[in-house]
């Protein structure tokens, strides 16, 4: 096959490209230029939007012995990922930009361009595995290395995208990938993994949002209240808070029981942030919209699990498909779950699909 290897400049994508070539594919390395101004996003080894990363990817391609190109997708990335991130936070929701990037950029814009150029598939360094079932459907499964499994952020891929995807690292623990990179002479063998959101320069989401939203920033200040409505403090923008947040509330009045308070609700229209005890964060039901099914949508009630964060726990669940989404009953309550997050649905190790959480149902307290 003719394969585009998406090379971020890190160790995982470099080894994935090398393995794709070793498997006999005709491989071309491609680095995605996602920032209009690379210096304005990240520096060093924390992200995947820097000049250093582009140079690291080029050097790796030279060692592997494959052609290398840079594709400028900065405008598409800004519109589909960065703008979406800003607007979701402005509306009091908590988005996951990595899922949006996979959905809109790496396995949509990149795959569309690759297919148009005559390539057959896109290979990435994600930790996940693909299998074909008895009916010929391509299934997405968790990786062997549970600590590095990235099937959650791939839960937005549909059947057509999976048919044109390769994940060469899914059967290998991360330490072995680093050892292999060193054996292959790849200088990125010891490069640290990227963390946080690639386009937030210092990991300070609130500060970045305040700067980038500018005049569009809604509700620059407002009250922080308890569940009775008593004002406990003042915030400097609802977009700086997420459901379940504990740190940085700077409340002037302690709770009567002395326990920490957590963000329970964010209301952008009234500029109100509500806080309360952790037990009031417990959720046992979710409503999801914008479904993305990896294969056929489940029929009836699916007894499976859901994952609600990129490296979060699995929760036993009953999933019922409804028009334009799904209703999810959590048999294991979850805490700090917010609209805008993704619920990725599993049956065993197989990804069934995902929905964007539109509403949550709190556990009824006695």
Describe it for me?
It catalyses: S-sulfanyl-L-cysteinyl-[protein] + uridine(34) in tRNA + AH2 + ATP = 2-thiouridine(34) in tRNA + L-cysteinyl-[protein] + A + AMP + diphosphate + H(+). Residues 148-150 are annotated as: Interaction with tRNA. The structure is a single chain. By secondary structure, the chain is an alpha/beta fold. The chain folds into three domains: 2-190, HUPs (Rossmann fold); 218-276, Adenine nucleotide alpha hydrolases-like domains (SH3 type barrels), CATH 2.30.30.280; 280-362, Translation factors (Elongation Factor Tu (Ef-tu), domain 3). It is 24% helix and 30% strand. The chain has seven helices and 17 strands. The protein has helices spanning 11-22, 51-64, 74-90, 97-116, 159-163, 174-183, 205-213; strands at residues 2-6, 26-33, 68-72, 121-123, 129-132, 138-141, 165-166, 222-225, 231-235, 262-267, 272-276, 282-293, 301-307, 314-322, 325-335, 342-347, 350-362. Strands 12-15-14-13-16-17 form a six-stranded antiparallel barrel. The chain starts with a strand and ends with a strand. The relative contact order is 0.13.
């Amino acid at each position: 096959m003719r394969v585009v290897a998406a090379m971020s400049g890190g160790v995982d994508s470099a080894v994935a490209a090398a393995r794709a070539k070793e498997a006999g594919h005709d491989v071309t390395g491609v680095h995605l230029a996602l920032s209009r101004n690379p210096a304005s996003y990240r520096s060093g080894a924390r992200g995947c939007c820097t000049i250093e990363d582009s140079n690291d990817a080029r050097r790796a391609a030279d060692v592997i012995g494959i052609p290398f190109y840079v594709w400028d997708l900065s405008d598409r990335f800004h519109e589909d990922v960065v703008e979406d991130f800003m607007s979701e936070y402005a509306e009091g929701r908590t988005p996951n930009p990595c899922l949006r990037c996979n959905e809109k950029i790496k396995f949509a814009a990149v795959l569309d361009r690759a297919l148009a150029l005559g390539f057959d598939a896109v290979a990435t360094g994600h930790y996940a595995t693909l299998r074909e079932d008895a009916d010929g459907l391509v299934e997405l499964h968790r990786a062997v290395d549970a600590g590095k499994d990235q099937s959650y952020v791939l839960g937005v891929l549909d059947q057509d995208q999976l048919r044109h995807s390769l994940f060469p690292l899914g059967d290998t623990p991360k330490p072995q990938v680093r050892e292999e990179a060193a054996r292959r002479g790849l200088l990125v063998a010891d490069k640290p993994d990227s963390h946080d959101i690639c386009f937030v320069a210092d990991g300070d989401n609130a500060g970045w949002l305040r700067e980038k939203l500018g005049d569009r920033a809604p509700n620059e200040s407002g009250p922080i209240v308890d569940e009775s409505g008593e004002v406990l403090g003042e915030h400097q923008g609802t977009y700086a808070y997420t459901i379940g947040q504990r740190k940085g509330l700077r409340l002037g009045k302690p709770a009567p029981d002395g326990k920490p308070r957590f963000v329970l609700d964010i209301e952008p229209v009234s500029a109100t942030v509500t806080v309360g005890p952790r037990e009031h964060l417990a959720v046992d039901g979710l409503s999801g919209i914008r479904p993305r099914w990896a294969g056929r949508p489940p029929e009836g009630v699916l007894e499976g699990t859901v994952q609600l964060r990129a490296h979060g726990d699995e929760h036993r669940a009953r999933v019922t498909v409804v028009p334009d989404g799904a209703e999810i009953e959590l048999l294991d309550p979850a805490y700090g779950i917010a609209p805008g997050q993704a619920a990725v649905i599993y049956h065993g190790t197989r990804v069934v699909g995902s929905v964007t959480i539109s509403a949550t149902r709190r556990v009824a307290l006695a």
